[in-house]
């Protein structure tokens, strides 16, 4: 297994869909990270157990492999969520076609709702949509509609919505995003800031990546 970006930032946001007691002091657990428990579930569990006092949540990139049984997955999740008190989110994603039309939104949300109830049950899903068209009002509106519909479905089931956010460079050295921050504030319980690698040197000169602003030059890596 491998641990990804231990210093990922977390923000808990209030919204009308969830009622919860607000702690008087900041929580002692401060780490919310992306995590891969694909190859060695025992080792990953030992790592989380040893550091449970720090982990508020993990966004799981993978849990087990083809030989892992449903019972094993559920047992792993039970220890992490109930014994270690670490929230678990399933990392999910897609592209513009995943949410641009109502039919696409409905199908994507149905798939996410199935996922969130798998493996013994996750706290919620963590959205990882990246490199979508910026400056396109129809895409931004469609994504906001998608966020509201997904949040409503998750909250009705007692689940939560987390999202990954990042900023991307423009040709004029500005910053642009495809999402509406107000819609994220309205719908999401957790925000994970992708505060790393603004530019990806491995993408320079790759024709299929020519449209990605993080692959067209050199620049800051955080």
Secondary structure blueprint with pairings:
Layout: E1 2-4, E2 9-12, E3 31-37, H1 41-50, E4 55-63, H2 70-83, E5 87-93, H3 102-116, E6 124-128, H4 137-156, E7 160-165, E8 168-169, E9 175-176, H5 181-187, E10 190-193
Parallel strand pairs: 3-4, 4-5, 5-6, 6-7, 7-10
Antiparallel strand pairs: 1-3, 2-10, 8-9
Textual characterization of the structure:
Helix content is 30%, strand content 22%. It has 222 residues and is an alpha/beta fold. Helix 4 links the parallel strand 6 (124-128) and strand 7. Helix 4 (137-156) runs parallel beside helix 5. Residues 1-19 have low confidence and may be disordered.
Brief account:
By secondary structure, the chain is of the alpha/beta class. 30% of the residues lie in helices and 22% in strands.
Give the CA-based shape. Answer: globular
| Mean pLDDT value | 85
Uncertain ranges = 1-19
Major sheet strand order: 1-3-4-5-6-7-10-2
Element string (H = helix, E = strand): EEEHEHEHEHEEEHE
Rg on CA atoms, Å: 18 Å
Main sheet makeup = 8 strands, mixed
Range of strand content: 15-25%
Helix run count: 5
Helix content: 25-40%
Secondary-structure-based class equals alpha/beta
SS elements, strand count = 10
| Gap from first CA to last CA | 24 Å
């Amino acid at each position: 297994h491998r641990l990804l970006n231990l210093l990922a930032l977390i923000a808990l946001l209030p919204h009308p869909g969830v009622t919860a007691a607000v702690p008087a002091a900041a929580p002692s657990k401060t780490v919310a990270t992306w995590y891969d428990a694909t190859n060695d579930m025992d080792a990953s569990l030992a790592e989380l157990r040893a550091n449970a006092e720090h982990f508020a949540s993990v966004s799981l990139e993978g849990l087990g492999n083809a030989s892992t049984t449903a019972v094993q997955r559920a047992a792993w999740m039970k220890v992490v969520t109930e014994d270690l008190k670490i929230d678990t989110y399933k990392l999910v994603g897609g592209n513009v076609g995943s949410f641009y039309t109502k039919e696409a939104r409905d199908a994507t949300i149905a798939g996410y709702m199935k996922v969130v109830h798998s493996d013994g049950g996750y706290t919620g899903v963590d959205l990882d949509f990246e490199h979508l068209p910026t400056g396109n009002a129809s895409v931004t509106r469609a994504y906001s509609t998608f966020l509201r519909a997904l949040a409503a479905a998750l909250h009705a089931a007692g689940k939560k919505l987390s999202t990954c956010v990042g900023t991307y460079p423009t040709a004029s050295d500005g910053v642009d995003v495809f999402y509406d921050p107000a819609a994220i504030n309205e719908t999401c319980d957790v925000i994970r800031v992708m505060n790393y690698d603004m530019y990806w040197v491995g993408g320079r000169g790759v024709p299929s990546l020519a449209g990605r602003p993080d692959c067209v030059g050199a620049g800051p890596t955080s």
